[in-house]
What we know:
A: 6-stranded antiparallel sheet; 16 strands; 28% strand; B: alpha/beta; 3-stranded mixed sheet
Amino acid sequence: MCRLAAIKSKTPVAPILALRMMQAMQKGHDNSGFAMVMQDMGGAFANFKRFPLLSMACTSEGLDRADELLEGLGFTPKFDYQPDVDYSPKLNFRRMPHYVFRNYRYPEAYNVLYDQPTPEQKKLLVETRLKLRELLARDDQGYVYSFWPDVLTLKEIGDPRDIGTYFQLWNEHHWLEARIISAQCRQNTNYQIVRYAAHPFFLEGYTLMGNGENTFYQKNKEFQQHLNPAYVGFESDTQCFLYTLHYVVEQLGWPLQYYKHVVTPLPFEEMSRRRDAEVLRRIRQACQHLEINGPNTVLFVLPDGRMGIVADAKKLRPLVIGHQNGMVVAASEVCGLNMIIPDRDCAADIYPGERETVIIDNKLEVQQWPQ
Amino acid sequence: MATIILPELIPNVIRAEGQAKGGDNGSGKSDPENRRNGHGASPSRASGNGQSTGQSSGRAHTIKPTFVRDTHPIDFPWKIEWNPETCIRCGSCVSTCTFGSIQPSLQRQGQTLSAGSFPKPVEATQVIMAIKQVNDPKHYCRGCGMCEKVCPTNSIHPVQNEHNRFPLVARAGGSPVKRGGRGHIRARVFDHIKVGRISQMTDPSLDAARHTFDLLTPLGRGLPAEELALQLDNGRLVESGWMPPVRWIYPIIIGDMSVGALSWRMWEALALAVAYLNEECGLPVVMSSGEGGMPVRLLTSEYLKYFIIQIASGHFGWNRIIKAMPQMVTDPAGILIKIGQGAKPGDGGLLPAEKVAPHIQAIRGVPKADLLSPPNHQGLYSIEESVQKMFLSMNAAWKFRVPVAVKVAASSTSVAVFNNLVRDPYHIVGGFFLDGIQGGTGAAHEVSLDHTGHPILSKLRDCYLDAVTQGRQGHIPLFVGGGFGDTGDLAADAFKAICLGANGVFAAKIFLQLAGCVGNEKGRCNACNTGKCPVGITTQDPRLVARLDVDAVAQNVVDYFLAADMELKKLMAPIGNSSLPVGRSDALVSLNKPVADRLQIAYAC
């Protein structure tokens, strides 16, 4: 079982909070990896929020290939941050030769800057990331995690403590800061697992991480691979939950509450008592291969910055939400919350139920939407 | 205690040998007809002399000759063993045998008697009553075992005769062999497949008795989410137009058996069970009518909603159905266009005249005659044409409120058919029923039953994976049948098919077996085509039908469904699923490598 830690804060916070939460929940993971997506950036990237930010780990060859491709497409570097790192040989993690965290200007034809990318820019960014991914996958020259404005991704295999040390993430004040941090540490059940398999996953403004075993992975995957060219990889069964979220909200344009109806449909008996029973039955039939039918808690971040949580229909995986000092924190275990917001009112903690969607909006109000 | 095997009575053998010695090659000179025909024993001649094997004359000392070329019970698939010492001559066996395979006769028997104070043995003869097997192929023993069932002293039973010559004898007269039942194919792929992906610590197994399970499956065309007629209204999705009719049903359907193939009492028992399962047990089981119509009282009742009405190439019964439409108070669960069936693919339905009783004539609107459905729906020569003509007509008949599905025999061409239907532009193909080679039937040519058709599982898998390749899985629900439950484990068979991609299964023969049918795939009984079903299931003879206890049959069927329901849950719980795992082939492993490769599931050993 993996451990999830997510922070949504009014002011930018450093990744040390997520690392500390993971240390508190260490019994639930095996120190085999650490992955994190940061959104609504502060720190070094605060002034470049509208410029696509490339997060990539690669070899020198991979870097050359990526530069060539991006240049060919008309992207030009805007801001490049080379992190100070700790080269200590004792660190237990599989480091890559290059880590790229770089903002780009859009190609000339796309060069307008709004808070959110335009549909054309979205398409360009997704297609570019997929091309980069394919390019670097040849001969295993690197990994491209995200290419999106105001989103930074780090995924490493190894001991989270050492990963933190290498990137100097244990500093209270860091060049990396963000108002939204989603982090996950793995309980690795397969040591052949690749970096792409580490949560959180990111696609077109949507970030998602999960906890548990997707027992309908094969069904999900077989169905999703034809829904959108960006639904690729499937290195992790949790990726399916991201693609379903993206499909329901972005592709179908359905209101967010229908994500819950798709992944954990109501029992037929309960459905039949509702006025919208026919609509729900139609959704169930059309999306029967997108269901989550195992033990999974899913935590996601939407393009507008809202954070959401849904549990499986039997609530077989835990998650708890607490808040204090302008910060809402979600963790797999209470000890994760206690580590960084120990003085909160525990009675106000929320344990998302099996039939609700919990939304943390941008005012940090926590809403519970009954299914 | 000596058991006398009737067909091999010693006096008879001696007599026959005597004839053989005296004749030319045992051809029996004393029989002028035999000489005239100049060939071996024929069933018609054997039937003509009307004699049983052995000395069955009323005159104790007159033994009718039997010739080695005559048909004899040793040629038959079953021989009767009878014990004269325990038999009390009650006659129950003879009166119960519907095939006329045994009859009473008299037999002279030598005895040594002694009377008085000192032993003084005296040879004497006595005439006793014996039970004898008839040697007429028209009355050959089917091995149904009814004689054994009714015998109060366990004195008689059929024994399978592995050295029989019946396939040769039975074709005398130039007619192909016909029978009912399933194809006699022993390979059972289900048994090579196990549910091998068990939730063990990676995720929790569920509790079959405690958790809620959603076992329903759609019957009716599924639309991709993009094409659903939904629109946003105040932040909620609401219907905004017509969408194909869909019924959420139990994933095990009672397959197509007509009133006609079944006795009206048997059909009634199934109908009763279906109504009870729906109304009292909460299991929305539906049943297909088979080709042959339905009783008008049922057509015009509320219970019609539990039935799928079948239309096959003979259109039998549809005159009544159409006339009843104005009086219908509810819609049927669905319409099933039968193109073919797995038991006799490429062949139409067959109801022998023996079973076309007056009430069958009334329901179907036909005279007493062999009722043969054509192998094709006349006028349908392509898939597209079928969709445009039959699917549209049937949809239109119920104003597009009732799902219309199609049933075809599994074939090497099934994927092409399925593929074409999936592309139906009108969204009116509501289900694809694929029937495999091990499907049963009430009457068919044996050569069709045993030698034509396609096993179901690989074809199911092909269809499902083809839909996956196109991203169209679930658009047309796949239902499969053909041998499901033939060992009594319907839930396990159904579960494996569902994991391979089926939305549900249909089964039929197993419900007859629950009613007392003794037929099996080892040649027992299978006389459904004769109208002489010994348990009253596939006959229209009122005396035989009276043997069926309708309420008891309905209860058996209900009980079986309740048990199967729990068994399905007991299979879903260990893999951690509470919804049907349609297409979850990762839950299966095969103990047979070629099967694993063919079905694209993991091989385990």
